[in-house]
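Researcher: Sequence recovery benchmark, item below. Answer with residues only.
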């Protein structure tokens, strides 16, 4: 599927899962609710996601990225009316010479809107992961709440992780927070697991699963099987 328009009418509720996609345009009318599950296994992927969320409507995005070579994902979700809500969860694995960029942004255009973002990544070999994006609360969007969280674990000395969460706040009566952690694989964790009889590769796989499993478990059995195969192939 190259592109798709997802439009939910008033109070409509839907669950959608895609493993073949590029551009998505999303519009949620008042009171509607969308659970969107995206799993990317492509090569040299360019993905653009645009969304508009109406009054008391909500979208939850679960994104599992196991693409190869180069991936660039840009998402812009606008919370356009009071009570609009978006939760974003991303897990990605890069290895060999993969280069992956994720620019995930939210714009709070009305009061009492909420955005929550959690990005998790594992970078191996000579690969690179970049997490960026802006949560923008405009003037007048009182009572809004924006949260960003990014974590990247770097397995090898030539791998790179960059996390650059940005908050742009133009209103005083709001809540906003962000956190970013980029760190090397903990040698103590590896030693503990290997002391329990695991091989070096098995210990690395277990740690990787611990980072990525919370997202992958949300998918259908068929997609979970594809994710497990992608993990084994990468490790």
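Model:
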């Amino acid at each position: 599927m190259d592109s798709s328009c997802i439009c939910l009418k008033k109070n409509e509720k839907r669950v959608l899962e895609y493993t073949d996609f590029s551009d998505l345009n999303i519009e949620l009318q008042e009171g509607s609710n969308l659970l969107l599950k995206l799993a990317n296994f492509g090569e040299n992927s360019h993905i653009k996601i645009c969304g508009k969320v109406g009054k008391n409507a909500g979208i939850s995005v679960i994104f599992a990225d196991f693409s190869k070579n180069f991936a660039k994902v840009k998402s812009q979700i606008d919370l356009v009316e009071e009570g609009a809500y978006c939760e974003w969860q991303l897990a990605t694995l890069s290895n060999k010479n993969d280069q992956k960029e994720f620019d995930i942004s939210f714009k709070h255009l009305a009061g009492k809107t909420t955005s929550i973002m959690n990005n998790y990544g594992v970078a191996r070999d000579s690969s690179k992961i970049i997490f960026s994006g802006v949560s923008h609360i405009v003037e007048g969007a009182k009572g809004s709440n924006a949260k960003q969280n990014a974590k990247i674990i770097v397995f090898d000395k030539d791998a790179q992780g960059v996390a650059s969460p940005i908050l742009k706040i133009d209103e005083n009566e709001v809540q906003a927070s962000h956190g970013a952690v980029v760190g090397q694989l903990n040698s103590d964790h590896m030693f503990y697991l290997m002391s329990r009889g695991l091989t070096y590769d098995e210990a690395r796989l277990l740690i990787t699963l611990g980072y990525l499993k919370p997202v992958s478990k949300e998918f259908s059995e068929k997609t979970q099987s594809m994710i497990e195969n992608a993990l084994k192939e990468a490790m």
